[in-house]
Automatic annotation (TrEMBL):
NCBIfam families: PRK06553.1. Keywords: Acyltransferase, Cell inner membrane, Cell membrane, Membrane, Transferase. Its EC number is 2.3.1.241. It is found in: Cell inner membrane. One of its GO terms (molecular function) is Kdo2-lipid IVA acyltransferase activity. It comes from Aureimonas phyllosphaerae. This is KDO2-lipid IV(A) lauroyltransferase.
Length: 307
């Protein structure tokens, strides 16, 4: 059998496997649609806690948690990893319930809805500011709700995201995100130009900054070396953008808190230009602060420290 034929066979087998995995996921989400949001999300949480530890990714999560928290016992590490799988189950299920989940109403009594927002006055000030803005966040909590929240305050943004490797799932995810999340730019060749075009036109951009980036700036995360995508500080330097950290964490009782933080003052060199390497470290420091506050809500099963 020729090499080209082997390649075609392998590709078809992979496509078939991806299709089967996607259909299984879609079937599970269809079942979840029959439940009220809180019950459906709780079921997805329990299911993921059962399935996740049986996968190879669980070992990666344990390794990463051990590197980040050398002072914690094996039992504590295992507990965080299992709770983290529950969070991952909720993320998958939240695509089904996005419209039900985001019930924020500024007139409602605090603590009575599923979503509360910190930084409302800041959202309103940014809405009325013609200057382009870059919002950054991490794979923490229900990060998918952040573009919806921004749109609620009239801050539509173009968000850079990494597509799932499974193209069938990626297509479905993209469709779900387009419902209320604004414009989307897949993280691939040409993405930086698309974001630059948005900022040049006075638009707003949202980015996840906690992913491995082989050609990134040398930085540290939890005291260990890693590389960080320099796109945020490079865009800020070119377009004179304000940079705002934003996150969404899960609260007890199936509730959510979305927080918009004040402008991050990026480090500058002696000539006043934004220091890209130093700014990348600032982004990592913000994300690390968030993760330390809610360690079970960050995605521990990707290899952030590979350099």
């Amino acid at each position: 059998m020729s090499g080209r034929l082997l390649e075609r066979v392998w590709k078809r087998q992979r496509q078939s496997r991806d299709w089967l995995v996607a259909q299984a996921l879609f079937a599970m989400l269809a079942v979840l649609r029959q439940f009220p949001a809180r019950k459906g999300l709780a079921f997805a949480d329990r299911l993921a806690r059962w399935i996740g530890p049986k996968t190879s990714r669980h070992r990666i999560a344990i390794e990463n948690l051990t590197l980040a928290y050398p002072e914690k016992s094996a039992a504590e590490i295992e507990d965080i990893a299992r709770r983290n799988w529950g969070q991952m189950g909720r993320i998958a299920a939240e695509y089904v319930f996005l419209d039900e989940i985001f019930d924020f109403d500024p007139a409602r009594e605090p603590g009575t809805g599923m979503v509360e927002v910190e930084g409302i006055d800041l959202f309103l000030r940014l809405r009325d500011n013609p200057k382009p803005i870059i919002f950054f966040t991490a794979h923490l909590g229900s990060f998918e709700l952040l573009p919806i929240c921004a749109a609620t305050f009239g801050l539509n943004l173009t968000a850079l995201f990494r597509q799932p490797n499974n193209r069938y799932i990626a297509r479905k995810v993209l469709s779900a995100r387009r419902t209320r999340g604004g414009h989307l730019v897949p993280s691939k060749a040409g993405a930086a130009w698309a974001l630059a075009g948005t900022l040049e036109a006075g638009g707003n951009v949202g980015m996840l900054v906690d992913q491995k980036f082989k050609r990134g700036e040398p930085t540290t995360f939890f005291g260990r070396p890693c590389r960080t995508n320099p796109l945020v500080p490079k865009l800020a330097r070119k377009f004179d953008c304000d940079i705002h950290p934003a996150r969404c964490v899960r609260l007890p009782g199936g509730r959510y808190r979305l927080s918009l933080e004040p402008r991050l003052e990026l480090k500058r060199s002696a000539n006043g230009e934004i220091d890209v390497a130093g700014s990348c470290q600032q982004l990592n420091d913000v994300v690390e602060r968030w993760v330390r506050e809610n360690p079970d809500q960050w995605m521990w099963f990707h290899r952030r420290w590979q350099v």
